[in-house]
Design brief:
This protein is mostly helical and about 300 residues long. The protein is about 60% helix and about 0% strand. It has eleven helices and two strands. Helix 3 (about 45-65) packs antiparallel against helix 4, helix 7 crosses helix 9 (about 210-220) and helix 8 packs antiparallel against helix 9. The chain is elongated.
Length: about 300
């Protein structure tokens, strides 16, 4: 797979640049529907060659759709490519007739019987697809046949979109974890805010959205670290979400984005005499339900009040 990725990664980068981001989520569905939308004669001729050419065409479209997704980096699902290629091959002209031609007339060995069973199953699949396509041609796209046929590309397209999303989410987390581990080595005295802000900055440069960067950074910094092969233990043996050896320095004020839950008291932080800590509900109320928006307004309020002193 490593050698194959060396080939697919450059293709993925080219597709990522030339295909608009708005179009990419629809590509898996379009490629999954291609075997049924392309006329049966496309990829030409008849016999086994037609099956192979049409299978290669539809499998290639599926591969391109996967490689074009955000964060692909050349990775793809071989199973999805095989499913698309196999479906495309079964929709070729006279696919069922061609497959039946490979049956053994008088099977004797177990292998002969197994071969016939496989060919029979494939030919029935081809006949079923042909029947559905004929039903659509005669009764329309919104007929019972049309709905049955539509379920195939919708299912496969949804699977491909889900796989691409999970791959991007994992990549975001891996990027954030790598930056966290780098800072652990180089900035032993860094505060939580230093880690959080630097991870967001790094991931923004890497092309992730603010939402993806924040989710990955909070996941990395909420007590999880696999740098040494396992979960980071709670500081001091208690139920504390702050990474080991770190605490939030709130002597100059600040928002607390880390923690397992509100009112859990699981974040180590520094505060000082005459300071005032707002509750999570107050922060949320300041932001009309959005705690981050509330934090921004509270920072502004704090700065304005400090300027009066």
């Amino acid at each position: 797979m490593g050698l194959l990725k060396k080939i697919t990664r450059p293709i993925s980068k080219v597709l990522d640049k030339i295909i608009p981001n708005e179009v990419k989520p629809f590509l898996p569905y379009a490629s999954a529907a291609a075997p049924f939308l392309l006329p049966a004669g496309i990829a030409g001729g008849s016999g086994l060659g037609a099956l192979l050419r049409r299978g290669a065409l539809t499998g290639g479209l599926n591969l391109a759709a996967q490689l074009a997704q955000e964060g692909s980096e050349g990775e793809f699902s071989p199973l999805s490519v095989l499913l698309a290629g196999g479906t495309g091959a079964l929709t070729a002209s006279d696919a069922a007739k061609t497959l039946k031609g490979f049956r053994v007339d008088k099977p004797v060995s177990f292998l002969d019987k197994a071969k016939n069973l496989g060919i029979t199953s494939l030919s029935k699949g081809a006949e079923g697809l042909s029947s559905l396509q004929e039903g659509i041609a005669n009764k329309g796209l919104f007929s019972k046949e049309g709905l049955k046929l539509a379920s195939i590309p919708v299912t496969q397209g949804t699977m491909d979109v889900a796989v691409a999303g999970a791959r991007r989410e994992q990549k975001a987390y891996d990027e954030a974890l790598a930056e966290f581990n780098r800072m652990q080595k180089e900035m032993s005295g860094a505060t939580y805010n230093d880690y959080y802000d630097n991870i967001l900055k790094y991931m923004d440069l890497a092309g992730f959205t603010a939402e993806e960067a924040e989710a990955a950074a909070e996941r990395v910094l909420s007590g999880i670290n696999f740098a040494n092969g396992g979960r980071v233990g709670y500081l001091g043996g208690g139920n504390v979400a702050t990474p080991p050896g770190m605490e939030m320095d709130l002597r100059v004020g600040g928002f607390i984005p880390i923690g397992q839950a509100e009112r859990a008291d699981d974040v180590l932080a520094r505060v000082s005499k005459n300071e005032f800590v707002m509750t999570a509900d107050a922060v949320r109320g300041m932001g009309n339900g959005d705690p981050r928006a509330g934090a921004q307004k509270m920072y502004q309020l704090m700065n304005n009040l400090e300027a009066r002193v």
